[in-house]
Amino acid sequence: MSDNDATRPNAFLKYVVESKSIISSALAEIILYPSWFVSILRIMKPYTSTSDVVDEMYKDYGFFGFYSGICVGVAHRTLTNIISRNIFQIIHSATETKDIKEELKEESTIDFKNSLLSIASTGLASLLTTPLLTLQNNIIANPSLSFRDIWYDLTSEYGASVLFRGAIPNVISSMIRKSVFLFGMPYVGDLVRLCAQTENTTALNTLTLMGVSLISSFISAPFYFAIVYLQASRNFSNTSECWNRMSESGASVLWSGFPASLVYDLPRSSLQWYLGTKITEITEGCGCFPK
User: Fold this and answer.
1) DSSP string spanning the chain?
2) Most buried of 52, 151, 239, 290 (most Cβ within 10 A)?
3) Residue 277: which domain range?
4) Average pLDDT score over residue span 123-134
5) 23 lies in some domain
6) Is residue 50 part of a domain?
7) Number of domains in the chain
8) pTM
9) Residue 290 within a domain
C-alpha cells in the first residue's frame, strides 16, 4: 500500500478523533470565555449588576479585555482533561476512556466503579492544575497586568505555595460537577425524554446536557465563590472563613456569580458535544480515516 493510498488510516486524523473531547473542550472554552470572564468579575463585585460590570470592563479595556487570561484558561481546561483521562486510563490499564456525555442511555443504569474512579481522577487532576486556575483568576482580577507581572507579584510576595490557594474548594467543586454529570445524566435524560415528547437525538442531548449543567453549576457555585476570593483577593485563609464573612448580609451572595456563569455553563457541554460530533463527521468524511 502506497503512502498516497486514500484508504490508508491517517495517523493525524486518528489522533484528532481520539482526542476529540479534549479538542472540543478547548474550542468551547475559546468561544465562551467572555461569559466565564464576566462571571468571575461578578463574584468579585457581588453587589454590582452584570450589565454594570460589562459596561465598566468594556470602557476600561475594550472588547478584547474580555479575553484576558484566555491562554491560561484554555491551558487549564485542556491540561485538566488530559491528566484526568490519563489517570483514569492508568488505573484501568485501558486504551480508551468512555465519555458518558457522548450518549444518552436507554435505561438509567450507572457503572458505579468506573464513575467513582472517574470522579477521583477529576479531583486529582484539578488539584494538580490549581496553579493555572490561580493565575487565570488573578489575570481576570487584574487585566491590565501581563502574565509575567502576575506570576512575579504572586510568587515574590507569597512564594510558590500561593499558586495552590483554593485547591480544596477547587477539587470539591470539580468532583461535584463530575458526580452530577455521571450520576445525574441518565435520570435527567429520562426526564427530558418524558417531558419533551420528541425522538430528536440532538434536541434530547442538548436539553439533557443543559439540565445537568444547571444543576451542577448551582450546587458548585458557593465553592467557586470561595475559589475566586482565596486566589484573587487572598483576604481569607480558608473556605469556611470566606463563606462566613461574605455571607453576613445574606447567603445569596455566595451565588452572586451563578446567573452570569449560566451563560457559560449551559451551552458549554452541549457545544462541546456538538463540536465532538462534527470532528468525527469531518474526519470520517474526508476519505483519509476509515469509518
Assistant:
1) --TT-TTSPPHHHHHHHHTHHHHHHHHHHHHHHHHHHHHHHHHHSTTS-HHHHHHHHHHHH-GGGGGTTHHHHHHHHHHHHHHHHHHHHHHHT-S----GGG---SS----HHHHHHHHHHHHHHHHHTHHHHHHHHHHHH-TTS-HHHHHHHHHHHH-GGGGGTTHHHHHHHHHHHHHHHHHHHHHHHHHHHHHH----HHHHHHHHHHHHHHHHHHHHHHHHHHHHIIIII---SSHHHHHHHHTTT-GGGGGTTHHHHHHHHHHHHHHHHHHHHHHHHHHHHTSSS--
2) 239
3) 11-283
4) 95
5) yes
6) yes
7) 1
8) 0.81
9) no
Residues 230-247: pLDDT tens digits? 998 888 989 999 999 999
pLDDT, one tens digit per residue, over 263-282 is: 898 888 888 888 888 877 77
Measured CA to CA, the distance from residue 138 to residue 140 in angstroms comes to: 5
CATH of the domain at 215: 1.50.40.10
Q: Per the domain annotation, does 220 fall within a domain? A: yes
